[in-house]
Model the fold of this input.
Amino acid sequence: MKSDREKWDRRYSDEISDSLSPDPLLLEFRELFSSGRALDLACGLGSASMFLAGIGYWVDAFDTSEVALRKLMNQLVRKNLSIGVAVVDLDYYPLQRNTYDVVTVFYFFSQRIVASIRAALKPKGILVYSTFNYLHLSDRPDFCRDYLVPPGGIGRFFPDLHVVADRESSEENPAISQFIGINLAI
Ligand SMILES: C[S@@+](CC[C@H](N)C(=O)[O-])C[C@H]1O[C@@H](n2cnc3c(N)ncnc32)[C@H](O)[C@@H]1O
Done:
């Protein structure tokens, strides 16, 4: 949606200080990752993309904010990393099926794209997902419910993935749900 894109472009133009360090979930499960193709959805400034590129993945990084992606590209030059970035509205963009060894999603949720995320995983592909759940409403009552994981956690949206971790609440923050699943289908 155009208004979403404008909102995020404004936010990223305001020099927000989002961390460029990889999410702790990626570090906790570092041993799962090897090499191949990775997709970082709603990548923002690209902390997960850069982590995955740094350990040897070919990474595609998608986000609706051109401003965020421009900042990410500046970082790539500085760090001598290569990532394929694209300005994409995930609500309407069909992901390539059966393509990725790893898909990461940090702090973005939309039930509309769950099936497309699942289909993008190759056999043995790993999904790493961490984002706000409905408990976030107690801090941010104005937050749009559609963007929050409902009660039950993330795993129930990916019922055929082998569960490595399915935490309705993370240890650090009850309002964050985390999921790691592997596509064991042949
Ligand atoms: C909270 S930020 C998270 C950024 C990054 N994943 C991180 O953890 O730092 C949410 C991101 O989702 C992106 N986003 C929001 N709606 C989107 C959509 N419909 N399609 C693609 N990206 C979207 C925003 O531009 C923003 O970068």
